[in-house]
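BUG-327 | component: ligand-complex export | severity: low

The export step for UD2 jobs runs without errors, but we want the raw record kept on the ticket for reference. Input record follows.
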Amino acid sequence: MNDAVLVTGGAGFIGSHTVAALRAAGRRVVVLDDFSTGRRENLSEWAGDPQVAVVEGDVRGAVEPALAGLGPFAAVVHLAAQTSVVRSLAAPIDDLDVNLRATTRLLLWAAAAGARRFVFASSAAVYGEPRRVPVAESEPTAPLSPYGAAKRAAELYLGCLGPLHGVQTVCLRLFNVYGPRQDPASPYSGVVATFLARARRGEPLTIFGDGSQTRDLIYVGDVARAIHLAVETDLVSRTGDVPGDMSGGPPEPAGLNIGTGRELAIVDLAAAAQRACGAEGAGVRFAPARAGEIARSAALTQAAAASLGFRAEVELDEGLRRTAAWL
Ligand code: UD2
């Protein structure tokens, strides 16, 4: 139990909540972060904790020397990433270097370091515009961005290399994650952070398109719990198969959807965000739809429930209240 869990991107938004979930369960944690978007203050809670080590480093570089002496490692949670769909369209090679090449190299490092499990933050972006909503893991993947394509390619690389090297890989297809520590100032931030920050200032919210587009919004604390379950759960023995393949057919590397299953229209989110801030009167403005926007998104959640025992618990209004309180 004293073997460490390496969390790349551990000083970031999802990463710091993951550190909290792992520490609450008594796990020793090593954070690797380049602090490009991660913040030391996100980890201030564990400043004096001997069970948490923080290493500054880039997953694209040589991680071996940076992590020497900090093992043994039981598992790796790989969250360090280029996280923006928009940026991936403008700079696809940078996205590829981080989201595919560094992920593959880290898997090889994990195998050499003796880690038995590798949990990877994939994305709902692997589906592109889903044929059916809520979308099942068995649906075809048809990413619309280099970001989604690299996440899908990384799933496939992990699916090939994990078994070869004796590392169990778990790809979590995260839907729209929101919560405290998601930077509202970033142009790449999520809609919830943007809406709450504006509502707090009493400013009108901007809705791109007519607001009928839908998303599955999941609270970051729930995502951190799913990641912790993925670290601790022996998926092969529980399901008799690899994650995502619930058909009983031949093993196929796939991801597990991590969402709530609830499909929410952006206009309804705008109203809920304003309610959470007591800014009902501030109004909304409509702007042209974003290019490459998907119309509908929500997760079918049965696979994560069956293989991890995971269900999202935090209701939207409660999650918005907690996020607004942090801002
Ligand atoms: C999210 C993820 C992305 C990827 C993708 C998969 C974030 C920040 N991005 O992109 O990483 O996984 O899902 O499909 O979580 N909107 C407004 N007004 C605003 C801001 C946003 O109307 O001020 C709309 C936007 O047009 C979109 C929705 O809100 O319809 C969600 O936007 P987003 O940027 O939070 O996330 P998304 O789904 O584009």
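Assignee comment: Attached the raw record above. Residues 186 and 311 are 29 Å apart (CA to CA).
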